[in-house]
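Hi,

I'm pasting everything inline rather than attaching a file, because the server keeps stripping attachments. The sequence lines come first, and each chain or strand is labelled.
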Amino acid sequence: ETGVTQTPRHLVMGMTNKKSLKCEQHLGHNAMYWYKQSAKKPLELMFVYSLEERVENNSVPSRFSPECPNSSHLFLHLHTLQPEDSALYLCASSQDLNTYEQYFGPGTRLTVT
Amino acid sequence: AQSVTQLDSHVSVSEGTPVLLRCNYSSSYSPSLFWYVQHPNKGLQLLLKYTSAATLVKGINGFEAEFKKSETSFHLTKPSAHMSDAAEYFCVVGAGTALIFGKGTTLSVSS
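And the predicted assembly:
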């Protein structure tokens, strides 16, 4: 595997479910990001991690809980989501926080029913 | 604060004709600017980047963009469109630890 991978690619969950999204980067980068892409809206930055420490949390509801166990892996734990949380969730990585060039995964298409 | 405005939500061209996707930026200092492309059901791919070196930036797949400070613009061009160029294009500015994305321009290419 090369680049940034995300699993699952598609996820349908009910509002009472708990699920997790996984991201893995094979680029040796030190910074990782979660974005939300909704229809007709610009990409929204959700979380930023650098060397496994969270450095930014853009007013994201607590029903989204990130985890970064090491510099290659990033998770987004989901619980009691709302239908408006349905979106494409994109993971990205960069060499470090000073490098704007980010590499994106293919995303997880989440549908909340 | 940094921001970008993509002036067209949708651009349609015929195969073999030039492509112009327009982007204006707002920045209080010399910006880092990018164009990303997103094909259907795919993640975003970096097309090109401007980081205060040459004002004319060449990217992948024949795309290029020109940084014009006097016009605060960073328009994306390609001399001849190909069917495979049909995608969503995002103009992006670097801001602190984050990237600020425009709303995107959908490029349609007809044969």
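Residues 9 and 108 of chain A are 4 Å apart (CA to CA).

If the labels don't parse on your end, tell me and I'll reformat.
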